[in-house]
Amino acid sequence: MSDISAASIKQLRETTGAGMLDCRKALTENAGNMEAAIDWLRKKGLSAAAKKSGRVAAEGVVAAITTGTKGAVVELNSETDFVSRNEQFQQLAKNIVTLAINAGGDVEKLKTAAYPGTGRNVGDEVIQAVGVIGENLNLRRTAVLSVNKGVVASYVHNAVAPGMGKIAILVGIESEGDAAKAEALGKQIAMHIAATRPEALSTADVDSAKLDRERAVYREQAQASGKPADVIEKMVDGRVRKYYEEVVLLEQLFVIDGKTKVSQVVANAAKEIGAPVKLTGFVAYRLGEGIEKATSDFAADVKAVAGTAA
Predict the structure, then answer these.
(1) Which tens digits make up the pLDDT trace of 157-201?
(2) 3-state class (DSSP) for residue 101
(3) pTM for the full model?
(4) Residue 279 · residue 175 · CB < 8 Å
(5) How far apart are CA 179 and CA 273, in angstroms?
């Protein structure tokens, strides 16, 4: 038990919403393995928020740009939110995302691209901006999305300037119909994605290892009912369908009307757009997603200082 760190218990508690003692026991029973401990708590019905990500946002902006059949997003981080409202920082992000269209989603390639009007590449320009702005800056990631015929639509949430904010979404709409109407559909779906955080486009795109984990949890929960094996499998299948409705974009209920599946919304749009419509993919960037910031326990810091002073 002494091998289980307080930090691990805190992380598990924040991720699941379970009590501290239950988190300690879950980690102990699973030799400190975080994912196994999460599943253990879920199986015991002790996880109050199994889907809580616990991600801490870094500062800066995510920026998006579209040019007809192609779109790009980038994440440019800063140390404080104040800098994200700096005009020079915003211009830097705008220029970088424009160059990202031709970088193929490769952030290292983007860093080597020539930055306009300076004689420097993008990576060096970011370093140059650090000295001027006075904060550490980082061009963290980029992605592109394209379609053969149709449009790539975008939506930026919590915008601090045109095309940049806290969330940036790209959506690919394949169609030979009216481009303006296809783009309007794409923007609505992008807004839906910003609200619902889907993990996959279709059921075929769901990560198989994650699906296996979900099935294992559902099966163990169902077995506790004591029902026959065939009934248990039907229960598991029902839970999987519910899981798909939560994490698969095409299986989700469209937030704008709350009753139609996204797949049906896309199919219905063909009449308005004037040709068959296919949703081919999406990219969702959320500022600081996956970045861990150092946190300070003020009480512990004071205690440590007092101890040192003594």
Answers:
(1) 999 999 999 999 999 999 999 999 999 999 999 999 999 999 999
(2) coil
(3) 0.75
(4) no
(5) 8
How far is it between the farthest Cα atoms of the chain?
A: 79
In this structure, the strands spanning 278-286 and 164-165 are unpaired
Distance in angstroms between the alpha carbons of the first and the last residue of the chain: 32
User: b/e string for 216-244 if b means 16 or more Cβ within 10 A?
Assistant: ebbebbbeeeeeeeeebeebbeebbeebb
Q: How far apart are CA 64 and CA 164, in angstroms?
A: 6
Distance in angstroms (rounded) separating the CA atoms of residues 67 and 26: 50
H-helix or E-strand spanning residue 233: helix 229-247
Tens-digit pLDDT profile for residues 26-39: 999 999 998 888 88
DSSP 161: B
| Cross-strand partners of 155 | 169
From the list 58, 65, 122, 60, the residue with the least C-alpha distance to 85 is: 60
Residues, the chain: 310
Domains, the chain, with CATH or none: 1-56 (1.10.8.10), 59-200+259-285 (3.30.479.20)
Q: Which residue blocks in 17-53 are alpha helix, DSSP H?
A: 20-29, 34-43
Helices (H) and strands (E) in the chain, counts: 12, 7
pLDDT at 15: 73
Distances (CA, A) of 260 to 37, 90, 253, 267: 36, 38, 5, 11
Report the C-alpha gap between 227 and 229 in whole angstroms: 7
Q: How far is CA 243 from CA 63, 107, 239, 246, in A?
A: 31, 33, 6, 5
Helix axes 262-273, 179-196, angle to 10 degrees: 170
